[in-house]
What does this fold into?
Amino acid sequence: MNAGLPRFVAATDFSEHAGWAAQRAALLAAQHGAKLELLHVVPKTPLDALRELFRAKPEGVRNLVEDLRRALTRAASALAKATGASITPRVEIGEVLDVIASECNGADLLAMGARGTSPLRDALLGTTAERLLGKCKRPMLIAKRAAKRPYKDVLVAVDFSPASEDALRAVLRLMPQAAVTAVHAYDIPFEGQLRLAGVEKATIEGYRSRAAAKAVAEIRALGSKISGDGMRVGHRIGMGHPPHLILEKAQALHADLIVLGKQKRAIVQQLLLGSVARHVLADSRSDVLVVPAA
It folds into this structure.
């Protein structure tokens, strides 16, 4: 986190999911003594169009913005009373993605809902959260359920890259009270070719066992490196497509948060292959925290 008091931002469009995100951000802010800004962005292009329509009565547009400010202030006040967090409401006018991305890159945490007020737009263009994945350089918390209590069971995807190490470090810092489990998808290089070459099943199973044992040892070493306790982080390992394994283990553990490290990838790679973060964000029932590589 930054020096001084941490700064959290919760972006809201007054939707149900945004309300969940603001509640979660407020709980975390209260826990860490962070300053929370409740942010609403008024889209500039529609507002300009409205100004053109109301040119004869510009007070109509001013009243609309003031109404939004009052609604945001009421929401911030109610949230502060419920959680004990220090919350400042703020309305900005601009291009929504650009404003939120800029705020994210200056904050210690951005929280937002998985769905907004326009389901049709989300279906056609992707949600704001999905579109921000490539723009936000700081941790993004995407809420998918109501925040009724602090996170209890957290699953962290680990592939032993610097990004996944940063993700594990972030969750141990942000949610020190949670039970944290690392999930890792391992594979056997050229397993298909080994089978075609006639290598015995027992031999391949031996390779699998050694790969699994190596993964467990590395998870314990990573937990020890970050927290000083090799047993602080539990483990769930398996073979398979990483997003599918992450979602399967999250469901089995009843995880209320999935944490993912985000690698820097070329735009072409993202378009052709997608990303683990996008797959998990689209299909998970749990909240998702995406931590970019430092």
